[in-house]
TrEMBL record, chain A:
It is a multi-pass membrane protein. It is found in: Cell membrane. This is ABC transporter permease. GO terms for cellular component: plasma membrane.
Length: 367, 309
């Protein structure tokens, strides 16, 4: 008897839905072992990471707050990944959105009016889009890898933000701290529930999920994006433009990331500071995969990943677990997901050894 | 310019280039075998912390370098299992590896922040090191600097003048053809991936042992990604990786000198952006310059392969 691996004719639908929860389970087991090796009480660490935040209203509201940017960016990234567009610089696009939107808030400092927030949002979307337009242009015009360009621009955005809050936008009454003024009330997102930090941006992220779901599964545009990714030759034959899809997915992700960045600075933070994100732009990549590139799945995945962020704070206070443990647990989850994809695409069976020894033909796997 | 300024300047270009050269040479072999490993940054970081920890605990530079290389290789083995055995998406798996390396190195390094170590010793070569100008410039470096140049030469020789190199390139150009004439595509790719991991680990080790002898979270600062760009810049040729690495070393040093020079016309943040912007510019020039550079990419780069058994 030996193991025989053969490609499935069609991907297994039940397994496609079963693998994300299984991957979460695998990650929990792996994290247990890892924490035990590192000398932390593994049960307590896992409880802090995944259970404790769910026990009270405060934890649940923080969950919504942290899931919101992850979901918004993840939805955009997923559309790109479906079309084989690998934007990994959402972190930078998020920062540029926060800078553009925050810039509007600072420009109208002390002014009041209903129009300030919408104007900030527009600027944030434009800022994120502008940053994503660079890899889009270089990819479609010169064939430069969007992976490297979008990532390099993240480092540039980080430096630009640091320059602004240390230089021209520094709070004149801030005792030389690297931070801008606190935004005026008109430039802050309204809080939805008293006593929490849940702001109107959370509603926007839910809206984004619904719109993305309709676009991706019910419109020609969604079909075009999926076709370009799955069957580029067929897409060309059908007259779908790859250039258009690259631009659309990058701009959409950039805009959403920019908006998510604004919601951070106009929401819980309330000003521009050098570090406005704990890596949402990178974690959103994992969220997109965990959600199986489907907007509704991404909503669930965003909540799971947000849980690990809040749990990490808890575990750090409670037992001194370094914050880096979160990143590690998140990356392990992505490993488990990618590994489990094998079962979705291949069938593994036990077979009796064949008597003949004919040379095995090679076959390309479809990624 | 005065020689007493120029020589240290050029020496610092060499040191800034070395981590890039080590990592990019490894990644070049991986890509020539048809595999794209975007996890270089993560492997470098884990290599850096493991080398640092080994140096701190044992005090032996040789063990430290071995630890760095081994750590990179272990991480790349993980990548290999996913990408080669389980035929997973190479781009996504490479990203996962980088995120994994970021988290793992930060966790491992939490207890090593702020500790000093003895930097990697400069090896004096009798007779040569005492020569004026040439001595300090070429013959007063640590072992990893020499190793990086030697490895580039060795890789160039291996790829172009040996049977093994021919097979490796064949696997990268046409996996199905290589398979059909009896080569074990997966096994050859595993070797390439492990080599790439060890080299990235050494690149990281150079950072924490010699370049800035300490451990700082995320201390690679994007060098793994720049190494990936260098492979494209070099059109997948070892000697051009060498040239590219020294060019980028030059950009880094230029920016550091400008920051340290006192009269700063441009805010330091804009100078720090330089290597990243230079990467984008160089990638654009390479991709648009000629069709040749695009043809130079191994034909099977990034495509998963599974033999039907």
């Amino acid at each position: 008897m030996r193991l025989k691996v053969e490609p499935r004719r069609q991907v297994s639908k039940p397994l496609q839905y079963a693998t994300p929860p299984l991957s979460v389970l695998g990650t929990v087991v792996a994290a247990f072992v890892l924490f035990a090796i590192m000398g932390y009480d593994p049960l307590r660490a896992l409880y802090d990471l995944f259970v404790a935040p769910l026990g009270n209203v405060q934890g649940l509201s923080e969950l919504a707050l942290k899931a919101s940017p992850l979901v918004m960016i993840g939805v955009g990234l997923a559309a790109g990944f479906r079309a084989n567009v690998w934007n990994i610089g959402a972190e930078g696009q998020l920062m540029m959105g926060a800078i553009a939107g925050g810039g509007v808030a600072l420009a109208f400092y002390g002014r009041e009016g209903w129009w300030i927030l919408p104007l900030m949002s527009l600027a944030a979307v434009a800022g994120g889009m502008a940053w994503a337009a660079v890899p889009a242009f270089l990819k479609t015009r010169f064939g430069v890898s969007e992976i490297l360009v979008s990532l390099m621009l993240t480092y540039v955005a980080e430096q630009f933000l640091s320059y602004l809050v240390l230089g021209p936008w520094k709070d004149p009454e801030g005792m030389n701290f690297p931070q801008s003024r606190m935004f005026s009330d008109s430039a802050l997102l309204p809080v939805l529930f008293d006593g929490t930090r849940v702001h109107a941006g959370v509603l926007v992220s839910l809206l984004v999920v619904v719109v993305a779901w309709v676009v991706m599964s019910r419109s020609i545009l969604g079909f075009e994006i999926r076709t370009v990714g799955l069957a580029p030759a067929a897409a060309r034959y059908a007259g779908f433009s790859q250039t258009r899809v690259v631009w659309l997915t990058l701009l959409a992700t950039g805009g959403l990331a920019g908006l998510a960045g604004l919601f951070e600075v106009a929401g819980p933070i309330g000003q521009l500071i050098p570090k406005i994100t704990p890596g949402y732009g990178f974690t959103a990549i994992i969220v997109a995969f965990l959600g199986r590139l489907h907007p509704l799945g991404i909503l669930l995945a965003g909540l799971v990943m947000a849980l690990s962020y809040i749990g990490a704070d808890q575990a750090q206070v409670d037992m001194g677990l370094p914050n880096a443990a979160t990143g590690l647990v998140q990356a392990m989850l992505l490993f488990f997901l990618l590994a489990s994809d094998f079962l979705v695409r291949y069938r593994v069976r036990l077979v009796r050894p064949a008597a003949t020894s004919e040379p095995a033909p090679a076959q390309k796997a479809t990624a | 310019m005065n020689l007493s300024i120029l020589v240290p300047l050029l020496v610092s270009v060499i040191t800034a280039a070395t981590p890039l050269l080590l990592a990019a040479t490894g990644e070049l072999v991986v890509e020539r075998a048809g595999v794209l490993n975007l996890g270089v940054e993560g492997m470098m970081l884990v290599g850096a912390i493991c080398a640092f920890a080994a140096m701190f605990i044992t005090g032996s530079p040789i063990l430290a370098m071995l630890a760095g290389a081994a750590a990179g290789a272990v991480l790349s083995a993980l990548f290999g299992v996913l990408v080669l055995t389980l035929a997973s998406n190479q781009v996504a798996t490479g990203l996962a590896l980088t995120l994994f390396g970021l988290g793992l190195s930060a966790l491992m390094g939490a207890n090593f922040v702020g500790h000093p170590i003895v930097p990697l010793a400069k090896l004096a070569i009798p007779g040569l090191s005492s020569l004026p100008v040439i001595g300090p410039l070429l013959f007063s470096h640590d072992a990893l600097v020499y190793l990086s140049v030697l490895m580039t030469g060795a890789v160039g020789w291996f790829l172009n003048h040996t049977r093994g190199g021919l097979i490796l390139r064949g696997v990268g150009e046409s996996d199905t053809s290589a398979h059909s004439i009896g080569h074990d595509v997966i096994r050859i790719r595993y070797y390439a991936v492990l080599f790439g991991g060890a080299m990235a680990g050494l690149g990281g080790a150079y950072l924490s042992l010699a370049y800035t002898p300490m451990w700082v979270e995320g201390m690679t600062a994007g060098r793994g990604w720049i190494a990936l760009a260098l492979v494209v810049f070099a059109a997948w040729r070892p000697w051009r990786v060498l040239a590219g690495a020294y060019l980028f070393g030059g950009v880094t040093v230029l920016q550091l000198y400008a920051q340290g020079s006192g009269f700063v016309l441009v805010p330091t943040q804009f100078l720090t952006m330089l290597p990243y912007l230079a990467t984008i510019v160089v990638l654009t020039l390479m991709s648009s310059g000629s069709v040749r550079s695009r043809l130079a990419a191994p034909a099977c780069l990034g495509k998963p392969f599974r033999p039907v058994s």
